[in-house]
Amino acid sequence: MSVIPGQMSTRSVCVYCASSRMSHPAYRQAAYQLGEVLAKQGIAILYGGGAVGSMGALADGALAHGGRVVGILPRFMADLELGHRGLSELKLVEDMRTRKHLMLTGAEAVIALPGGCGTLEELFEALTLKRLGLYLGPIVLVNTRGYFGPLQALLEHAVTERF
What's this model's pTM, rounded to 2 decimal places? Predict the structure, then answer.
């Protein structure tokens, strides 16, 4: 994974990703590499605050390379000890809605890594807000192992059907 110097002018990104430990290792590797690249570019990461799966790999990759990583975690998840302990900053919030709001409004761009329903729900909210003109930043999908191909086909079908 590479980013051409000067290609990104953002100072912070919101990254949507998964906490699953059972997904293919390539997804965690891509998350780690993304964290590394963003850290080396001096771009801070806002993410869900998790310690495992792609979430943990993203944070580990950035932190290992001197990056700033801000986790935003609902209190009930912190009570279950699901939060990453090595973050630059951990913000505890009351609920998932607040978490999503702070992640999106605190960053200048969105990057979505492959993930399950939670990741897709966050992505669709960002896409909807962009469509409505309420979010103006870029939204980038990291298409590891062709994961987002079926979603792209579905969205193209929606456009064809005039939705």
Answer: 0.91
pLDDT per residue rounded down to tens, the chain (163 residues): 444 444 546 799 999 999 999 999 999 999 999 999 999 999 999 999 999 999 999 999 999 999 999 999 999 988 787 899 999 999 999 999 999 999 999 999 999 999 999 999 999 999 999 999 999 999 999 999 999 999 999 999 999 999 9
- CATH node for 12-160: 3.40.50.450
Residue ranges of the domains in the chain? 12-160
**Number of CB atoms found within 10 A of residue 58's CB:** 31
145-to-109, 113, 150 alpha-carbon distances in Å: 23, 11, 12
